[in-house]
Amino acid sequence: MSRPIDILLNNVRGHQRVPSDSKEFHEVTKRDALQLLESELDKLLQTAQPDKTTELRNDMKRFSDLFGRFLQEEGPSIDWSKIQKLPSEAVREYGELAPPNQAEIKAMLEKLVVIKLNGGLGTSMGCHGPKSVIPVRSDLTFLDLTVQQIEHLNKTYNANVPLVLMNSFNTDEDTEKIVRKYQGFKVQIYTFNQSCFPRISRESFLPVAKDFDVDSDIEAWYPPGHGDFYESFQKSGLLKQFISEGREYLFLSNIDNLGATVDLNILNMLLTNSKPNEFVMEVTDKTRADVKGGTIIQFEDQLRLLEIAQVPNDHVDDFKSVKTFKFFNTNNIWANLKAIDRVLTDKSLNMEIIVNNKTLENGLRVVQLETAVGAAMKCFHNSIGINVPRSRFLPVKKTSDLLLVMSNLYNMKNGSLVMSPQRMFPTTPLVKLGENHFSKVKEFLGRFANIPDIIELDHLTVSGDVTFGKGVSLRVRVK
Fold first, then answer.
1. Residue 397 among the catalytic residues
2. Which of 51, 185, 284, 476 has its CA 20 to 30 A from that of 320?
């Protein structure tokens, strides 16, 4: 790099006060950084397989555009003083939605596509391969349960709702092998890959990869967040295919959210509204456990998603406050297919950049530039939130979540988990398991002879070297 990188970083992020006559210098510095990156990307493309060069060149153009925007943005992207009060019609209550006419459900389902985000690995829970193949209930995996849900829907209403998996380069090969076992099911499964972007060095702002052989240096590459869904979905050809089939809406969610099932009341609202909602974000009442998750705000007369990465440091406590922001984004998204096609064709899709700093195993500090799927909310017409029951947000991120979904707190029916009627209140227990002994699935399972009865549990904290025998029942508060 021709200039000291600490100067570049300060200028890029705009955290230092500088004389006004240095503005031109800043612009030159940013332009140099972008040109150097583009030159390195060209060198990488020369190492790609010839039959993939055109596709990869388009991906690298998108990455350089993202990097260019990253250089231009100075600090958090939200001016806190411009956040407006949520309009009364911005978030509808789920309980106010009308159920569909039973005779019309089949026709409604023919207009739907179900998308599951399947790019994550199970490494944080000590598992190898896609997270979607971790057994979570009766030896059934996230993917098994999803397929069961869609098959039940198709059989019940004689419908043909397709299931689409967005994989990453981390999960694609394993997932393709696994989905073959579902060939006899009444579910048509499609897969496509999200983009593969190069990690850039925090010191030089240049790619750490030396060539396009991703498998040989997998740490040099990353999937750029679920905001990449829109363009990758279009590139796969599936967006055009489903529109041509007469399908109108998609329902998208994380595959590890076991509460994210197809909801006929929401679908009915979308298909019968006289003023169609092109984008719907399911939100739920925020709790103190949700302090880092995104929320829905009104900003510059538009509804949009606010993530903690966009919040100025002096307003982080405001962001985490349950009183200030009542709702929490579940990442269950409903969107109109033709509207997605329009914003992509018009190039009006614009999502805030999430800067994810990481340190690789070799100690190298890198930057990942990502986007969130919900951040596209502001790009669509008549976007709204729907305040759904907490039961529609049941993610499994840690073994403490796994304890809940494996327990008698839930009954399983047709691939869906339903809270037991024996539970006296609708909230789930707060569970904290010690990181040293419970963080990995294998360790976790080895510490329970069987999963305890937690129907009456309110709060569980476990620290230290603890094991649980058979027939254990946990009630109220246990430490």
1. yes
2. 476
